[in-house]
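Hey, I'm writing a tutorial for new members on how sequence and structure tokens pair up, and I'd like a real worked example in the thread rather than a made-up one. If someone can provide the structure for the chain below, I'll link this post from the tutorial.
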Amino acid sequence: MKKSSKWVLIAIIPIMAACGNQGAQLNNELAIPVSVVDVVKKPIIQFINTTGTATAAGQTTLYSEMAGYYYLQKNPKTGAPYKLGDIVEKGQVVVKIENPETENTIAIATKKLNLEISALENQKQKSLYDKGGVTLRELKNSEVALAQANTDYENAKIQLAKKEVIAPFRGAVVDLPQVTEGTKIVTNAAVITLMDYSKLLMEINLPEKNFSTVQVGQEVMITNYTLPNDTLKAKINELSPAVSTETRTFKGKLLIDNSAFKLRPGMFVKADIEVARRDSVIVIPKDIIVSGNRGKTVYIVEKGAVRERIITTGLENETSVEVIEGLKKNERVVTKGFETLRNNSKVKIINQ
């Protein structure tokens, strides 16, 4: 019997050693590396996302209003004649048309002198009328002559002003016909096309379900692949009151502030319409939420292990979500490595 007990004892010792090694190995395997962040309160904005093509808010082609010799003016900023892409300020002369024959016909100097003479004659007639030296009719005739002289002079100035083609607004040169300087052009010839894209328009189509969540004046954030680190501001400028029976969408127009000319007309852009905002709420990354039969869950770390938390969410956008219930400020929520976790899994924090 003693011999038998010895062998049993010897057999048990290796088995216990093996179990101890296996347990240690199991414990090591359960220490899953994870990354965490502290739960904090911060703002969150919910958007409606849409896309469209930006177009210039204003564009015009300027034409010659008189025949004459064409002279393209110089850009004050460069000292060289205007060219495609140059920015023209409102009121700047872009083209001059010289026509000595027309200028002689207008005879502005003569009309100005006639206006001065008529003004002196009218003053004389007024003085004489006050003294009884002329009749009321003679006074009125001098007033008619003065008015006619003034009209003739103003018309002459208007006709002479047609020599200059003036930019009606600040814009970029987008078309400039090739005309040799000093070449004679006819009346109503296209001389330059200007585009004002300091403000851009963008037509959008929104789903019927968003009819009550958007309104004129709401702020919109505009992005484009050419502006990876920049966002432009826009506002909803117009909204149609009708919903299309075919697409179940309604139309709108955005007005984009492009004063720095970062966007170009015709570019395809993405618009994020702000429909809701919270200023100080618990916000977590959207991609760490696990959805299952029990609802939406996340994992928090407590004393080297994770605890599964069922959460209730509120506002959300492409990257973040508001947590209404289920998390508290300063708790540590797992952001990486949660895919293989289970409730009470042991973890090792690799970074925070």
